[in-house]
């Protein structure tokens, strides 16, 4: 999971028609098919110039000559087709099949290999056409002489690369990016058996649940602290294309109540364009240490996710926290720092010690593998090893210690006294409030009646 979320940068050069043509919507008349077939008949000299491609060719394959679709040319903004070519022009869309090469598709489109090589030679973006993926759609636009004027590759539902012949007969490329519609969505849940069950029952994807856990990772140990009766409400973006949901955007505002204590966080895109989560009064949610030194995604996917605690803690008269976890589970450094020891001893097994600034040291014992060396700098959440049972350990678990000024401390109680990551600067506070208050108000608005309903149900 990322420490910082940057807003997705988008290139927007032109706009696609609202309803982008679908491959299967072949509705053209028979007359149009005949016309297209006539246009695409290759000339003999073109066949003679065909050369082997540096890609896995299946040239012997019999080609089914069936245009899948005929569409009228749609005027585009970014790179116009050459003026002479705009009359009596036709488009043909072909879907890349398993094992297809660009050469196969040019054959099916009845366009000469010479033109394909000219296109491939037009630059590095065009060279990428040699690696096509099944399901991608290529739209060939040809003039009345059957000469390729434009090739458009639909990479996914949002992006298309177009190669257009310019007035000098050279291919130029541009990217057409569609932007989905975003709408805020709201979910809430009362945790009865586990965070994951509550989240998925509320209609949250696993990745959104993990994103939420990530926001609170400095405040809540999601491996150990979650209890029945904890609850959360979250507002996030849902993305739609042509009325169909295609995915989720980021969490916008979220509230989590853990063992009676409520934490609120809101997303803020600062003046530099960096998105991070803050408390409503502008303190960063990202602190010097995260609470769980383990990849809880891995743990929860291995353990039965219907259990309340994907990791359990056994309290022994010693100075650390034991996280039982499957062997091989990645272990994180809980903060930025420098490795001061990475070695093996009879008791600790494989161990890693990390110093964080002047006052803090964290220790990780019983690892199967160590992934860092003494002296190495590490970042928060960097993998430093994997869970094991080396040394005095009855089964695979991570023994984690947290020391302040050389004394063992309970990370659960010390975390609130730790230095916080930087807050929103006072110069940016007005901007912060303007952006985040509406989000928090919306979350609260949704929350009120809905939580009351939760109470009624109980
Ligand atoms: Zn232990």
From TrEMBL:
PANTHER family: CELL DIVISION PROTEIN YTFB, PEPTIDASE-RELATED. InterPro entries: Cell_wall_metabolism_enzyme, Csd3_N2, Dup_hybrid_motif, LysM_Opacity-associatedA, M23ase_b-sheet_dom. Its cofactor is Zn(2+). It is found in: Cell envelope. Its main location: other. This is Peptidoglycan DD-metalloendopeptidase family protein. Residues 93-172 form the Opacity-associated protein A LysM-like domain. The chain crosses the membrane at residues 21-41. PROSITE patterns: PROKAR_LIPOPROTEIN. Residues 317-411 form the M23ase beta-sheet core domain.
């Amino acid at each position: 999971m990322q420490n910082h979320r940057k807003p997705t940068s988008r290139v927007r050069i032109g706009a696609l028609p609202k309803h982008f043509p679908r491959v299967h919507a072949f509705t053209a008349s028979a007359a149009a098919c005949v016309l297209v077939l006539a246009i695409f008949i290759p000339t003999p000299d073109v066949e003679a110039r065909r050369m082997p491609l540096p890609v896995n060719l299946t040239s012997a394959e019999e080609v089914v000559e069936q245009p899948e679709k005929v569409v009228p040319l749609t005027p585009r903004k970014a790179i116009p087709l050459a003026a002479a070519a705009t009359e009596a022009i036709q488009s043909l869309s072909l879907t890349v099949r398993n094992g297809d090469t660009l050469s196969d598709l040019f054959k099916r489109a009845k366009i000469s290999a010479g033109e394909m090589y000219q296109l491939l030679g037009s630059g590095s973006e065009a060279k990428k056409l040699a690696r096509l993926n099944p399901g991608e759609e290529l739209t060939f636009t040809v003039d009345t002489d059957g000469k390729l004027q434009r090739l458009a590759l639909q990479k996914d539902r949002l992006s298309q690369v177009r190669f257009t012949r310019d007035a000098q007969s050279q291919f130029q490329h541009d990217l057409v990016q569609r932007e989905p519609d975003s709408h805020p969505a709201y979910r809430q849940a009362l945790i009865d058996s586990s965070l994951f069950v509550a989240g998925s029952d509320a209609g949250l994807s696993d990745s959104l649940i993990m994103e939420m856990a990530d926001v609170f990772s400095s405040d809540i140990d999601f491996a150990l602290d979650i209890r029945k009766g904890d609850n959360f409400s979250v507002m996030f973006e849902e993305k739609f294309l042509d009325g169909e949901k295609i995915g989720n955007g980021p969490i916008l505002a979220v509230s989590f109540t853990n063992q009676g204590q409520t934490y609120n966080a809101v997303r803020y895109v600062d003046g530099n364009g960096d998105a991070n989560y803050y408390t409503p009064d502008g303190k960063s949610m990202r602190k010097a240490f995260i609470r769980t030194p383990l990849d809880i995604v891995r743990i929860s996917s291995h353990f039965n996710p219907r259990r309340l605690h994907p990791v359990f803690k056994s309290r022994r008269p010693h100075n650390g926290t034991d996280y039982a976890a499957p062997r091989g589970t990645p272990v994180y450094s809980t903060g930025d720092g420098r490795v001061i020891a990475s070695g093996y001893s009879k008791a600790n097994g494989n161990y890693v010690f990390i110093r964080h600034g002047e006052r803090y040291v964290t220790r990780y014992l019983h690892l199967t593998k160590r992934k860092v060396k003494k002296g190495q700098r590490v970042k928060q959440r960097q993998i430093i090893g994997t869970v094991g049972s080396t040394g005095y350990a009855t089964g695979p678990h991570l023994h984690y210690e947290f020391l302040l000024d050389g004394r063992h401390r309970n990370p659960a109680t010390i975390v609130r006294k730790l230095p916080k990551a930087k807050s929103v600067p006072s110069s940016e506070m007005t901007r912060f409030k303007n952006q985040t208050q509406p989000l928090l108000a919306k979350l609260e608005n949704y929350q009120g009646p809905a939580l009351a309903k939760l109470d009624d149900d109980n």
